């Protein structure tokens, strides 16, 4: 992550515990530290990575202020964590069709998104395999039909399609690498939509 992303994450964590003034001072301290390392020739991403894990940094800052970090856990967004009252039960029953609609829309979005990715991957692979097949087929026009024009046309078309397939594979792998680098996954996306973090008292 770059400096802006790091500072945003750090600010969101520290605001739960420290005053605005303390947060401001701490952010400036880390901004200057990152800038100094950038001046030494590092990129922002390298400078940030050298600072360490964001959770460890927050833990150290809280230790310096003698503040105990609150623990968090994941809970389902649409399921109450406390025993519901009669009024809440009635409201939940009345809103049930809306929750079903929302859930259906989200599920449809996931299915469409997965289908688009699957179709894109299959199309790229089909281009590559189809191009190789044409390249392998081209010599048969020359050997069995004695048709040089068909042979050259098929060979050229095969190379073009194979090239398109290779370009597609390159960008797919590049996108996959970027996604994995950012820590994105279907599991995390599911958790983000259907679950939320709540603080628990120990």
From TrEMBL:
Transmembrane regions listed in the UniProt entry: 86-106, 112-136, 148-173
Name under which the protein is recorded: DUF1700 domain-containing protein
Keyword set, alphabetical order: Membrane, Transmembrane, Transmembrane helix
Keyword Transmembrane included in the entry's annotation: yes
Superkingdom classification of source: Bacteria
């Amino acid at each position: 992550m770059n400096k802006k992303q790091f500072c945003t994450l750090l600010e969101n964590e520290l605001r739960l515990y420290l005053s605005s003034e303390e947060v401001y001072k701490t952010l400036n301290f880390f901004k200057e530290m990152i800038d100094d390392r950038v001046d030494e020739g590092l990129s922002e991403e390298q400078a940030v990575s050298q600072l360490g894990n964001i959770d460890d940094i927050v833990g150290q800052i809280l230790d310096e202020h003698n503040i105990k970090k609150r623990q968090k856990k994941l809970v389902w967004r649409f399921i109450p964590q406390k025993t519901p009252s009669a009024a809440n039960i009635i409201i939940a029953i009345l809103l049930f069709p809306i929750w079903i609609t929302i859930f259906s829309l989200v599920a449809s979005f996931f299915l469409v998104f997965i289908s688009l990715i699957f179709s894109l991957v299959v199309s790229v692979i089909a281009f590559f395999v189809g191009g190789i097949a044409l390249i392998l087929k081209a010599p048969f026009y020359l050997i069995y039909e004695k048709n040089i024009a068909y042979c050259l046309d098929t060979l050229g078309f095969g190379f073009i399609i194979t090239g398109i397939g290779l370009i597609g594979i390159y960008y797919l792998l590049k996108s996959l690498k970027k996604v994995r680098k950012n820590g994105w996954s279907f599991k995390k996306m599911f958790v983000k939509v259907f679950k939320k973090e709540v603080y628990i008292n120990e």
